[in-house]
């Protein structure tokens, strides 16, 4: 059984992420683990909210009630019979809790909204999403924008600099999604020049071999910054429904995520982002 972890803060964005995950895996036997963390918004809260404190009990009960309400809605709705749901309420920081649950429950994918209830509109990733991406390295993460349409991905863009070798097991989340939904993968090379050096050519050939059996196209953009390149490429094609990245040293994503505000892409992206990790 596939286990999908879905953190929620009960915002519209978080609800859309739940709906997206359920639709994406509608034909698979899955357990969706709904997670809400409380009481760790700042250092002061961490000091005040102890188990014996009335404020702790009040926060816990509030979290449990909201999560149970969501759980009941999902269980009562006409959804796939292949799906089951579980609830987890914990006190602590979201990123640390997610990291623990991935190991405890053998989670295969994390699906979460990109912005929470108080997310700034100019940000592509909310602070919680970034924290999870920077702390969880053994599980793929699917970040779903609030404006994302709930649909299976007809086309997936995979930006790459070809500076690293792609192992099959690291690409597995992308390969499974593309094969399951018969998605087209568009490899997008972004660099200072279109011509590749010998190492890049070898890594490109390796990637193409990994994608055997999947309809694949190759594109290259030069002399343009990464965020603008991805945004323009995605907007120019109606068949792009997802962006996939490999988070590793010297990767495009590794550079992007460390920027405090991704304004150019953040204002416009409407497609989910799949983040995979190199082991």
From TrEMBL:
Pfam families annotated for this entry? Answer: Usp
Describe the location of the UspA domain by residue ranges: 1-145
Q: Which family does it belong to?
A: Belongs to the universal stress protein A family.
This protein is called what?
Universal stress protein
User: Which species is listed as the source?
Assistant: Sinomicrobium pectinilyticum
